[in-house]
Amino acid sequence: MSSGPGPRLGAMDNAPHIDHSADTTSSPATTTGGLLAGKVAFVTGAGRGIGAAAARLFAREGARVLLAARTEDELKAVTEKIRAAGGTAAYTVCDLADGASVRAAVDRAVELYGRLDVAFNNAATSVPPAPMDQVSEEDFDHVCAVNLKGSWLAMSAEVAAIRATAGTGAIVNNSSVGSLRGNPPLAAYGATKRAVNSLTESAAATYGPEGIRVNAIAPGTTLTEMMRAWDDASPGVVDHLNARTPLRRAADPDEIAQAAAWLLSDRASYVTGAVLPVDGGMQAI
Predict the structure, then answer these.
(1) Which of 113, 122, 169, 262 has the most CB atoms in a 10 Å sphere around its CB?
(2) What is residue 167's predicted lDDT score, i.e. its pLDDT?
(3) Is 245 domain-assigned?
């Protein structure tokens, strides 16, 4: 699964915290012929896990990247690593469940780099695994606000920015293999991710005529901080999931980021409305 359980995310104020030290000048990473060369990319949940791996990869592949998440210390660390490697990156702290915060973050990408070409909506939250009747109403509402409403808010802002600047572009939403079937330990999480799949397909149909592609990836077991926390709380979970995976191992976050990068690139120019499993073959069984 792309995101395992973890502490419930807290709320933030509406005003995004902005990295004012952004380097918007050209660098080797923005002038070489990478998969995303010349593109401006916006990545949510970019402070750690799949989002951080995606931000680093997109920069290596030539994009100028704006990282967004709730945790400024993590965003700053990832941004500094990208810059040290020769990439162009900046960050802004925002609350994905708050519309004004999300719109301000997307607008920041345009302010910094003059356009928006691609976006990877990776941020998500969950609650500790439990039967659905043991999940509190508050926690259920929060998962819906971040995973479902947050994805809708982000896509709406991204479409507007792409339309107003680059004209055409691509969006990838991070779903989960747990959205493709029943998900008893993480029922709320799986339900919101299945809803994200539907939003993805609807957006692809709506904005395809404008040249804006929208796809989703559905990761399987991925060694993120949240998945490791689940395995620490319930030892053997990762081994159990690996036994159900034909490749018999979990993914590194960079392997998931690679799929997102391809879908965002011009090499996937005739792909839209897809929910692509990146799961080591788990869905084949």
Answers:
(1) 122
(2) 98
(3) no
Report the number of distinct structural domains present in the chain: 1
| Tens-place pLDDT, residues 117-131 | 999 999 999 888 889
Query: pLDDT at position 110, please?
Result: 98
Q: Is 5 inside any structural domain?
A: no
Nearest to 65 by CA among 49, 35, 42: 42
Full domain range(s) for residue 133: 18-218+254-284
Confidence (pLDDT) at 127: 84
Inter-helix orientation angle 49-60/253-264, to 10°: 50
Is 1 a domain residue? no
Q: Which stretches of the chain score pLDDT less than 70?
A: 1-32
Does a structural domain hold residue 60? yes
Burial grade of 178 (CB within 10 A; 0-12, 13-18, 19 or more) = buried
Could you give the residue numbers annotated as active site? 189
